[in-house]
Specification:
This protein has 8 helices and 11 strands. By secondary structure, the chain is an alpha+beta fold. The chain has 2 domains: 148 residues, 3-Layer(aba) Sandwich (Aminopeptidase); 91 residues, Glutaredoxin, CATH 3.40.30.10.
Length: 255
C-alpha cells in the first residue's frame, strides 16, 4: 500500500520541500524566481500543496484567493486554482488535491472555487477532472479558454472580461508580458529572444508586478505569460524557437 502525504509549503518549509515544477533544476533562474514569488504570496493567502507517494513527488496544486490570483477572472470571495499536476496517474491523486482545495474553500467561508482551463495546451489543467469533481463550465474566452466554477451556494458567478481584442491593440512591437508565477516562463522568454535574434528583432519585456496590472493588460485569461506582435497574439505558453519564428513571419506576411 502506497503511503500518500499532502504537504503544504510555507516560507520556512519551501527550501526543504521545494516546488514541484523544475525541481530537477533548483538553481535555474526560473526556479529561483518561482521560489521568491511563492514567499511573497504566502502572506496573501496562496496555498501550494505537494502530494508525495512513498516520500517522492507525485503531484501538486496551487491556488489563491481571487484578489491575489494570477488568472484574469473577476468575482468575489472565490479561490482560484492556478495549477494542478500529477504524474502518478490512475490513483485519484488529482481528485484528492482538488478536494483538498474545495474543503479549504468551505472552511474559509468562500463562495466556491474557480479554475481556467484550455484544451489546446498542457499549460493549464485538464477540464475533465474538474467536471468529475462537480465543477461546471460557465464561460469561454478567445484562444479556447474556459471558465469553470464549483459554487457552494447562490453567489454571483465569476466572469471573464470582454475586451480581449482591445488589449492586443496596445502592442505593435514584439512584446513579452510575464510574471514570476510559473518557473517555465523564464525558459519561454529565452526561446522568444532566441527566435527574435534570428529575425534581427529586439523584444520588449513587460514584467507584471500587481494583479491590477495583470487584469488590465494581459492578452488572455492565463495572465502570467503572453507574447504579442503587431496587435496579434503570438503565444500564451512556451513554444519552440521554430514555432515562434513561424508565427512572427505569418503575422508579417498578413501585414
Amino acid at each position: 500500500m502506497a503511503q500518500v502525504n499532502l504537504i503544504e509549503l510555507s516560507t520556512t518549509s519551501l527550501e526543504k520541500e521545494g516546488c514541484y515544477c523544475l525541481r530537477s533544476k533548483p538553481k535555474s533562474e526560473g526556479y529561483r524566481k518561482k521560489s521568491e514569488w511563492l514567499k511573497s504570496q504566502f502572506q496573501h493567502g496562496l496555498k501550494y500543496v505537494n502530494l508525495k507517494e512513498n516520500g517522492k513527488a507525485a503531484g501538486f496544486i496551487e491556488y489563491a484567493p481571487i484578489e491575489a490570483s494570477s488568472r484574469v477572472v473577476y468575482g468575489e470571495n472565490y479561490l482560484v486554482i492556478h495549477c494542478l499536476w500529477v504524474h502518478v496517474t490512475g490513483k485519484g491523486y488529482a481528485s484528492k488535491l482538488i478536494q483538498t482545495c474545495l474543503q479549504d474553500a468551505k472552511e474559509l467561508g468562500k463562495a466556491g472555487v474557480i479554475v481556467v482551463t484550455n484544451p489546446s495546451t498542457s499549460w493549464t489543467p485538464s477540464k475533465d477532472i474538474f467536471i468529475k469533481n462537480d465543477f461546471k463550465e460557465i464561460a469561454k474566452a478567445p484562444y479556447d479558454f474556459e471558465l469553470l466554477v464549483c459554487k457552494f451556494g447562490d453567489a454571483a458567478d465569476p466572469y471573464f472580461p470582454n475586451n480581449w481584442e482591445e488589449r492586443l491593440h496596445h502592442y505593435e512591437e514584439l512584446t513579452i508580458l510575464r510574471t514570476k508565477q510559473c518557473p517555465y516562463i523564464e525558459v519561454a522568454t529565452e526561446v522568444v529572444f532566441a527566435a527574435a535574434a534570428k529575425l534581427e528583432m529586439e523584444p520588449r519585456v513587460v514584467d507584471i508586478q500587481k494583479r491590477e496590472e495583470l487584469l488590465a493588460i494581459s492578452p488572455t485569461p492565463y495572465g502570467v505569460y503572453g507574447v504579442v506582435y503587431k496587435k496579434q497574439l503570438v503565444a500564451f505558453h512556451r513554444l519552440t524557437m521554430k514555432a515562434v519564428m513561424k508565427k512572427i513571419k505569418e503575422i508579417d506576411n498578413e501585414a
